[in-house]
Amino acid sequence: MESTLGLEIIEVVEQAAIASARLMGKGDKNTADQVAVEAMRERMNKIHMRGRIVIGEGERDEAPMLYIGEEVGICSDPHAKAFCNPDELIEIDIAVDPCEGTNLVAYGQPGSMAVLAISEKGGLFNAPDFYMKKLAAPPAAKGHIDINKSATENLKILSECLNRSIDELVVVVMKRDRHNDLIKEIRQAGARVQLISDGDVGAALNCAFSGTNIHALMGIGAAPEGVISAAALRAMGGHFQGQLIYDPAIVVTKEWADKTKEENLERLQEMGIKDPDKVYDTHELASGETVLFAGCGITTGNLLKGVRFFHGGYRTETLVISTQSKTARFVDTVHMVDQPKVVQLK
To answer: Which residues of the chain carry a pLDDT beneath 50?
Structure first.
């Protein structure tokens, strides 16, 4: 799968990032997201595969987004459909977030990315568009910390695993009212808190790399992004656990204004999730034999530089992680659209 689709998925996230980066700082998060979706879909529909979106941006059949259940690949291209033989194509499941951190793009803030994860059919958890309680940490803490423990307990364990004092630890938490008690507990335990407005896939990724000065991600975020994070951290050997949140009282947000706990539980049953309180680890959220993750920086963050435009082209930086080759590759690409007058090296 890696040799067949590796370069293709790099180009998918690159095109989404480039499209979105053109809207950087313009205050229009919806358009920044929309153009990333369109660019991602257009490039995926040129790939010789039978792809199915299992993690997307919605569940409506006619949604103007990459929705859950949407089929992508060469057979979905109206210009190529007549010549397409589905039986000859590899079947894969795909999790996408074309613009992870739409607010970050809109307001020119660091850390937004175009991200996706792929695996063979059935290899990625088919999560609904719910919320998820998350815990991410470096490989040294894998299997030692636990999402069912308190933040204080986990910080003590993390301190031992990383051979650092608690006051040297940095925990990323999304700045939301629902996290006020969590933030207070982390600070009282002695650790430092880095608050982010959006983009917890990037925060989870940072946990897997030494030198980022981020040692854990805690709190509640979107479930689709949780599956993408789990795919990346599984390949990196990092720790990730997720637990679906189905009670709107826990996550007070306008997105769930018309939902009830009972309706959400019914939706989980429809999707075959029998235990709504189950805690999932990386191998359950990304269970495939081969899992690939790709993320391209839109705005510059800890791990990846954002898209840089120059006269005649642009430059991107992409991270590709594979369970197959056990590699994490940083791909620096110069895209020459016209004859460039200058190709900037740094």
So the answer is: 60-63
Residue 342 CB neighbour total at 10 angstroms: 9
Whole-model pTM: value is 0.91
HSE at residue 22, side-chain half, CA atoms within 13 A, is 12
- DSSP collapsed to 3 states, the chain: CHHHHHHHHHHHHHHHHHHHHCCCCCCCHHHHHHHHHHHHHHHHCCCCEEEEEEECCCCCCCCCCCCCCCEECHHHCCCCHHHCCHHHCEEEEEEEEEEECHHHHHCCCCCCEEEEEEEECCCECCCCCCEEEEEEECHHHCCCCCCCCCHHHHHHHHHHHHCCCHHHCEEEEECCHHHHHHHHHHHHHCCEEEEECCCHHHHHHHHCCCCCCCCEEEEEEEHHHHHHHHHHHHHHCCEEEEEEECCCCCCCCHHHCCCCHHHHHHHHHHCCCCCCCCEEEHHHHECCCCEEEEEEECCCCCCCCCCEEECCEEEEEEEEEECCCCEEEEEEEEEECCCCCCCCCC
Residues 158-190: tens digit of each pLDDT: 999 999 999 999 999 999 999 999 999 999 999
**Domains parsed from the chain with CATH numbers:** 2-121+289-336 (3.30.540.10), 131-285 (3.40.190.90)
pLDDT, residue 323, reads 93
- Specify whether the CB–CB gap between 191 and 183 falls below 8 A: no
For residue 82, what pLDDT is reported?
67
Which pLDDT belongs to residue 164? 96
Q: Could you read off the pLDDT of 214-247 as tens digits, one per residue?
A: 999 999 999 989 999 999 999 999 999 999 999 9
